[in-house]
Amino acid sequence: MAEVVHNPYSAAAEVAVAYTDTPTRLAFLRKVYALFSGAVIVWAGTALLVMSNEGLMRWTTGLFTGFLGFLLFMALAFFLLRVTAGRYPLNIIGLGIFGVLEGFFSAPLIYFALARAAPAGTQFGEVLASGTGLLTQAFGLTAIVFGGLSAYAITTKRDFSFLRAGLWIGFSLLLGLGILSIFGVGGGFVLGWGWSAAWVLLMSGFVLYDTQNIMKRFPANAAASAAAILLLDFVILFKHILLLLSRRD
């Protein structure tokens, strides 16, 4: 969902992976998905840690709830990725911290989904335990969707660049609706199944676009930045698949 533009035809710029030889491209992809897998583990572990501690959960909810919290998170996350990009080992450390921030930011929404699906009267310490099956189901479904779309984007000859404008228009629209809901406008839609379904569809498109985009725009030393983009796609997709599965209506 973010772009780092590298012009492959500029002598001053590093060559994007798509314009290199096959061994370089394959090595880049292996590194990206290895780093992505590690970042997913960091994100999931952080989110589970937050949800298992009531005090930490309350602090996180207070910090990251609302539009200002969202802006703070996004500013910190992308500033971190920006300043560490291409600087080994700072880029690996930056990716790890990004995964931790994602875990903190994701925990309240994941807990909300689990609490909504839990039986009435379930206590804080029991919500996570009662939602283990739901979490596993949502994670597995996300992995299947994400993995299938990524594999298709890598192996197909079809160019998904045409999706860029539509994806960012859709993202801006959904983000705008989310902001309006804070002020009481369109809150019913944001709380409905259509909201999460729209995000799942949007993020599926981003997975296709971003998977190809990191090959066309990123040099071989930008694997950590590429992994961070894919992590963001995966996490948002997971959260809204979880919200859909947790609905009772």
Account of the 3D structure:
By secondary structure, the protein is mainly α. It has one domain (21-246). Helices cover 77% and strands 0% of the residues. The chain contains 10 helices and no strands. The protein has helices at 22-51, 54-64, 67-84, 90-117, 124-130, 132-155, 163-182, 187-190, 193-217, 223-246. The longest helix is centred in the N-terminal third of the chain and has 30 residues, at 22-51. Residues 2-13 have low confidence and may be disordered.
Name the helicity range. Answer: over 70%
Q: Tally the helices: what do you get?
A: 10
Q: Tell me the total number of β-strands.
A: 0
Biggest sheet layout = none
Following the backbone from N to C, one meets helices and strands in this order, namely HHHHHHHHHH
Output the radius of gyration: 19 Å
Alpha-beta classification = mainly alpha
Oligomer: single chain
Beginning-to-end CA distance, first to last residue: 31 Å
Count of discrete structural domains: 1
Mean pLDDT: 83
Ranges where pLDDT stays below 50 over 5 or more residues in a row are: 2-13
Shape by Cα distribution: globular
Beta-strand fraction estimate: under 5%
